[in-house]
């Protein structure tokens, strides 16, 4: 059977791998703001909650808020202690401590939205001794208590290697544990100057080890971006490294420059190339992979919750 050939890199707008410039057709989004969108916005504002949808200028906010009535909540404030070159979240010095009432308010919002699956992320809080791990555990516990039928997906920072941080978070029993790798190793110094590829991979590997040992009953997930200057070979190698660490769920999306002060887009990756990346991930043994220009870590996140797991030992 003949293989479909996918051109990787170069090209004019509308062709696979368009170089940066005007956004190609496949990156156009709907700007409609139906009643459901305003309902979610009023709820978020009324409970003084932060969402990564707003802070990170996610292109899917109109679909998620307007069509599905879902949002990805961001805890531990809106000021991040790191300064990643791709991220629109404000960097600086956060207010001291944590908001003790945030877990309750967040659980109330999730109950009001009648969510069956909630995705929670946070800024980096390197100013806290535990990196915010205990606050994470309090949030998970509050959601489970207030909305027991709702599964919880956590997208945590790396906690900068703080001992016991992973223990604290996993002890609260989130249904999905996620930490984003974001990019290939060669781009870490430019894109994630406060992070390390090996440290992020080790965090995911430890969560996966505990799952396989029966110490954690949830699933392990990560995401990467493309279009920052990586090569296809680097993407394939990174997919293999992530799978070898025991991660089961992978998302791959297009990097979009949030402001002129952030890293420029190197190229717009064609949907055919995303399809190729997805095929590589499934061949590597991932149980679920979403790959596409507008895919983000929490995009259609609920779809991965009930998927059957593959035999992890056999699929490596």
Please, could you describe this protein's structure?
The protein has 316 residues and is an alpha/beta fold. The protein contains ten helices and ten strands. The model is unreliable at 1-15 and 309-316 (pLDDT under 50).
Note the quaternary state here: single chain
| Low-pLDDT stretches | 1-15, 309-316
| Helix/strand class | alpha/beta
Mean pLDDT across all amino acids: 83
Order of helices and strands: EHEHHEHEHEHEHHEHEEHE
Provide the fold topology:
Layout: E1 18-19, H1 35-46, E2 50-51, H2 52-55, H3 61-66, E3 72-75, H4 102-113, E4 117-122, H5 133-146, E5 151-155, H6 165-171, E6 176-178, H7 188-191, H8 197-212, E7 219-226, H9 232-244, E8 249-254, E9 267-268, H10 271-284, E10 288-292
Parallel strand pairs: 3-4, 4-5, 5-6, 6-7, 7-8, 8-10
Antiparallel strand pairs: 1-9, 2-3
Helix pairs in contact: 4-5, 5-6, 9-10
Key traits:
32% helix; 316 residues; two-stranded antiparallel ribbon; eight-stranded mixed β-sheet; 10 helices; alpha/beta
